[in-house]
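Aim 2 progress update. The chain analyzed this quarter is reproduced below.
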Amino acid sequence: MRAGEETAEKTRFGRAPKQTLFVLSKEHLPLAAAEVEALTRQRGQLVENLLIIATKPPAGLALTRSAHELLFTTTRDGLLSMMTRFSWPQGSFAVREHGLDLSARSLAAPIWRSLARLGTPRVDLEQPDNEFVFFQEGNEVFVTRTYWRNEERFSERRAHLRPRNHPTSLNPKLARAMINLAGPVRTIIDPFCGSGGILIEGALIGRHMTGNDIDPQQQARAEENLAYYGCTARVMTGDATTLTGSYDAIVTDLPIGRNAKLTAKAATFSAFFKQARRLARRAVVASDEPLERFCAPWRVEQSFMWYIQRNYTKHISVLR
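Predicted structure tokens:
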């Protein structure tokens, strides 16, 4: 997807809901929940991989599969009775179910009867006005209407598919999740931007991105990759320990290298973190080791581990 094109979240199914049920990706549930909560600035109720928050769903999520308006919650035994009494939105409809012992056809019957009192109901499995999705966890049933499904094509922006590849660039999905962990901010700087992976993911969702790298060749790589995806960002060449300016957040992947240790660059990164307090008051940082011993005067507020391959894992730290 290029900047300015239709967003990946399909919003064909009605108005923004007052209470949203997010179906989170199971590849990393804690990070997926934290991403939604950071963007909405609210804590949610997590039931397995379902996160419920009284908010409109934000755009640009990486680790959420779909978002649904929560119509009502009931028990399995009380479901059919509640469906009979509920005032279903008019329009063509389709029914999906996850985890219930009732078929979609049997769930559609009371909806059909309810809508028939107002006119002629119509089932449309391909392009419905309303897609009603039923989720059951234990004895609890969540009845929802689909708001959007995440159709973001992160795999098409993997590093080796960009015009200027760099092997250490972050997985695009992880880069997007890190940006969202910073919250609903406007301006972001990546002081170690490399070939621009974080810059691309931020620009695609409307963030005002600034990148910096000490290597002029990396600046050229980043600018070419940004242009390829139709993105705009400011890219500079300079020492990250001497940067100036004011931004809402820092989002970056520390350039340590898989065969190196954070301790080998401790002095450099210690100087960077001290200077970074002048750039922003929040940061989301990927590193090959935990940051607690190196990030003063910052405080690690949240931390996650993202498996890469074999014994290689990225540590994701949210700093304040």
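Residues 1-12 have pLDDT under 50 and may be disordered. The longest helix spans residues 104-116. These observations will guide the mutagenesis experiments scheduled for the next reporting period.
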